[in-house]
Amino acid sequence: KNEVEQSPQNLTAQEGEFITINCSYSVGISALHWLQQHPGGGIVSLFMLSSGKKKHGRLIATINIQEKHSSLHITASHPRDSAVYICAVKRGSQGNLIFGKGTKLSVKP
Amino acid sequence: EPEVTQTPSHQVTQMGQEVILRCVPISNHLYFYWYRQILGQKVEFLVSFYNNEISEKSEIFDDQFSVERPDGSNFTLKIRSTKLEDSAMYFCASSDRLPTEQFFGPGTRLTVL
Fold first, then answer.
1. Does A44 touch chain B (CB under 8 A)?
2. CB of A95 within 8 Å of any CB in chain B?
3. Is the per-residue pLDDT at B73 higher than 80?
4. Interatomic CA distance for residues A13 and B57, integer angstroms
5. Are B109 and A41 inside 8 Å of each other by CB?
6. Interval B13-52: pLDDT, tens
7. How many angstroms separate the CA atoms of B86 and A49, rounded?
8. Mean pLDDT for chain B?
9. Could you give the CA distance from residue A61 to residue A46 in angstroms, rounded to a whole number?
10. Could you tell me if B111 lies within 8 Å of chain A, comparing CB atoms?
11. Pairing mode, strands B10-13 and B108-112
12. Best mutation site among A86, A96, A97, A98 for testing chain B: the one with the most B CBs within 10 Å?
């Protein structure tokens, strides 16, 4: 069983729609990361959070430690948001990340 | 804005050959990582490096792999005798402290023939 599960695997949305991507994990963590992987392969860090909620522009990330669940929301989605969104967790004092399989988002104009 | 750089962007090699993948982390960062992503699969941790030594490594990081920080700026991953299954995108990342975000390089695509 994967330690980090994401849903959905694929998501197609119309421009302007509100998008939610979910991440559940089964291990104790010290932090959770949301990353964006562009079609060319590059990875960009969007958020790192260990509790509560963070917002950056049209992106919002929340985490519920008790339920071992995090969500990434995109408001007013745009075709340039099309990418793979990856949830990754950091366990305890270890620095390495454990990755989910990613959610491929396609936003149509 | 400071960024992690990696060279080469694409490396093609014959099975059994040695390859060295190079990374230049962000200059004031102290923690360095290598990850790999086989095509169509999730990203996997290989190794982390701090204070000139390996701090953690995964099962993937066997005796064929080694890492080095030969000077104050470069961080290298060496694969001694490449196998077909080593074909993947290799990402370097760095962070300034342990519980902070990691900054990823653009990756090196390794193709083993």
1. yes
2. yes
3. yes
4. 39
5. yes
6. 999 999 999 999 999 899 999 999 999 999 999 999 998 9
7. 32
8. 93
9. 9
10. no
11. parallel
12. A96
